[in-house]
Specification:
This is DUF5753 domain-containing protein. The chain is of the alpha/beta class and 284 residues long. The protein has helices at residues 4-19, 24-30, 35-42, 50-59, 65-83, 88-91, 95-106, 125-135, 143-154, 172-176, 182-196, 248-264, 268-280; strands at 109-114, 165-171, 201-206, 220-224, 233-237, 242-245. The chain folds into 2 domains: 4-83, lambda repressor-like DNA-binding domains (434 Repressor (Amino-terminal Domain), Orthogonal Bundle), CATH 1.10.260.40; 88-280, 2-Layer Sandwich (Endonuclease, Chain A). The protein contains 13 helices and 6 strands. The protein starts with a helix and ends with a helix.
Length: 284
Amino acid sequence: MSTVLARQLGGQLLAFREAAGLNQAQAADALSAQAAKVAKMERGWVPFRDPDVVALCRLYEVEDPQVVQGLLRLAKLDRERRRAKGWWVSSLTAGNLREYIAMEDVAIKVRTWQLALIPGLFQTPEYMRALAVAAVSPDEIDEVERIVDVRVRRQHRLGGSSPLRVHAVIWEAALRQMIGGPQVMRQQLEHLRELAERPTIDVQVLPFRAGVHSCGGGSFNILTFAEEGATDVVHMDGLRTTNWVEGVEESASYTELFARTCAMSLSPYDSMRFLESVAKGMNE
């Protein structure tokens, strides 16, 4: 199975191989393997053994110890993610969601930009249920509670001894869209304000009055990992699907985009006051 982290590592090794002017067969000789193994490694289809990473680095004349160690850390993180036997394995049927939640489980920080919805990690069950009911077909109504249960369990990462750090920037439209009715939205906004008081959570609001902004193309999340060799990964999160954006340059472009949007948004303190004002304006 291809994974995001393995594709990162495979892509870096592919770049080193091409820079060295070698083909897959020559790389395979260094591993006493077939060229098909190198092809699978470069596409992220298989976990990486440390001796293979070291052998390829030696062949490609990658001599910087920090670069080699970064690749080894990335390989280790991918192996740990593949071995993970978390609750999501049995709770979900969609492989893309299993991959995202496993990644979220080993991340140390998430930066999220949301255009139309409250971030999933911050949603109340009532808000989730209203979204799920609108998203599923009548013959899938039994799926609603399963979807809610999955998202509630994801929120456990916000607590515990090593809580996930979250920096959320939310467009004003997401705060005013009447999902589930006034009472559900008022409770949702009050819950969001309470979460924003935690030291591990930052919430900023991008108000309408800020004008044209750079993030109109869609919502996204940036996941950061502890390992220095693990490049940030970006994903677009739907109700039950996930699309990945990979690569160092692509990740850096989203990081820059997020930073520009933060600069246009209200400060965390002013955002809390803004949330209070919107919540008070919710009428039955």
